[in-house]
Amino acid sequence: MPEPPVGKPLGVFGGTFDPVHFGHLRLAEEATFSLDLAGVRWIPAGQPLLRQAPQVSARQRLAMVRLATAENPAFEVDHTEVDNARASYTVPTLERLRQPDQLGQQRSLVLLLGADAFTGLASWHRWQSLLDLAHIAVAHRPGFPVDPGQLPAALASCYAERHSSDPAALGQSTAGRIVSFAMTQLAISATQIRELLASGCSPRYLLPDEVIAYIRDHHLYPEH
After folding, report:
1. Which residues are 42's β-sheet partners?
2. Is 222 exposed, middle or buried (0-12, 13-18, 19+ CB in 10 A)?
3. Are 34 and 167 contacting, i.e. CB atoms less than 8 angstroms apart?
4. Type and span of the H or E element at 41
5. CATH number of the domain at 10-187, please?
6. Residues 6 or more apart in contact with residue 38 via CB below 8 angstroms
7. b vs e for 92-127, b when ≥16 Cβ sit within 10 Å of the residue's Cβ?
8. How far is it, in rounded angstroms, from Cα 13 to Cα 129?
9. Is the pTM of this model over 0.85?
10. pLDDT tens across 19-78, in order?
11. Which residues are CB-neighbours of 124 under 8 A, at least 6 positions away?
C-alpha cells in the first residue's frame, strides 16, 4: 500500500503570465483556501508552445510574477523553466518537481487550471501522464461547473474516472484525482491588458501597481 502524502497539498500554477494580472492572482488565492493547499508554486513558462510567442522576454515575465506575488507568504516562484532554453511542457516540469532534490514523491501536488485550459487538455504534450504526477484542480464560474458533455471523449472518460467532489481527496494521495472549485469571475485577460497598453490606455486596477510600474520602467508592450 502506498505511503500517505507528506504535508498539505501544494498547488502548481504554470503559465505564460504575459503579463500576470489579478485574474491569475485571484485563482491562486481562491484555490489555496477552497482546496486547503499549503500554498502555490508559480512556474512561468520559458518557451510556451500552445500560445502565441510572448511579447516580452521570459525573464521579464518572471520578474513581473515575482513582483505580483511578493507580499503573499503562501506563494513561491519557481524560475527553472525560465532558466532552461528548451520549450516548456507541463509533464517534464512535474517530473522535475518529483525528483528527490525537489519536492520528491511523497508530496501531494495539485495542478491548477482554468476551465478553458482544462477543456483543451487532450491537446497537451503527454497529457495522459499528468495524473500520474499530480492531481488537477479546475477553476470554474460560480454556478457553472465542469460539464463532461462538453469535453472531448478521451478527456470526458478520464474526468468520469478520476473526478472527486470532495477536495479532501487531494490530501489522501499524491496524484490522480480531478476536483473543481468555483472562483470569483474577473473579466480580465492578458490579451486585453496588452491591447490597452498598445493603445496608450490605462491598465490600472487590472494588475498590481508594482507590475504596471515595471512595465512602464522597462517600456514593455509599447504603443503602436
Report:
1. 13, 77
2. exposed
3. yes
4. strand 39-44
5. 3.40.50.620
6. 7, 8, 9, 10, 74
7. bbbebbbeeeebeeebbbbbbbebebbbebeebeeb
8. 17
9. yes
10. 999 999 999 999 999 999 999 999 999 877 656 678 899 999 999 999 999 999 999 999
11. 50, 89, 90, 91, 130
**172 exposed, middle or buried (CB, 10 Å; 0-12, 13-18, 19+)?**
middle
| Residue whose C-alpha cell is 512556474 | 43
CB burial of residue 131 (10 Å; 0-12, 13-18, 19+): middle
- Name the grid cell of 185: 469571475
Residue spans per domain, the chain = 10-187
Residue length, the chain? 224
What is the rounded distance in angstroms from the CA atom of residue 81 to the CA atom of residue 13? Answer: 13
Buried b (16+ CB within 10 A) or exposed e, 70-87: eeeeebebbbebbeeeee
Longest Cα–Cα distance of the chain, Å, equals: 60
